[in-house]
User: Fold this.
Amino acid sequence: MPGVKCVLLGEAATGKTTLASRFVKGAFSEFTESTIGAAFLTKSIKLDDRAEAYRLELWDTAGQERFNSLAPMYYRAAKIVLVCYDITSRDAFVRALEWIAQLQKDGPAGCVLCLVGLKADLASKREVPEQEASAFALDSANGVHVFMETSAKTGFNVDRLFESAVRRLPNDAPLLAPAPVTEIAAHVAREPKNGDDQGSSGCCR
Ligand SMILES: Nc1nc2c(ncn2[C@@H]2O[C@H](COP(=O)(O)OP(=O)(O)OP(=O)(O)O)[C@@H](O)[C@H]2O)c(=O)[nH]1
Ligand SMILES: [Mg+2]
Assistant:
């Protein structure tokens, strides 16, 4: 089973650990401790149209500023990078954009770059309009391949986020069955919309 290195970046308390644990363990925790260094989790994921399952190797990094210098060690050679922010924090969003700028210069070539808004259940406290983040992600100059808002509390979009990211990995194995022509046409014609993953392709840089 191919291993896929996947790293989570973002400001402290945005919910990275909670997202990772919702995805891997299927549970939500109201009380978490701030991550020290990084935590490592794995989960395998199988897409319907790919022959092999992937083993996602998740590096959940610490958002506290004092750990920022360690980040390049974690994102080096990553195949998927999830840059996370909390939709209720403008500061966290600004920090996410800084991470993306850093990755554009120094990030792993060819990675699937995802911009992820966390805590989507806290809509009444929202400080970052979904439209603003999706417009940033849609701008091909920013190199973002997937944009999604998620909630680890309700589970909203959590599995879908990881599936969308894995779907953008280069497919070395043959498709299980060729997609019908109409399905391909529908996919190509589909407009990216808010909360949906983006249709662009390319790499971090
Ligand atoms: N309402 C709500 N709260 C959340 C959600 N995800 C995380 N939280 C809460 O946000 C707080 C911080 O979550 P963490 O997962 O520890 O944040 P982190 O990004 O890992 O923080 P660092 O490890 O310090 O970088 C916790 O109290 C979580 O319960 C969510 O989807 N909805
Ligand atoms: Mg954490």
In short: The pocket of guanosine-5'-triphosphate (ligand 1) is lined by residues 10, 12-18, 29-30, 32, 34-35, 62-64, 118-119, 121-122, 151-153 (CB under 6 Å).
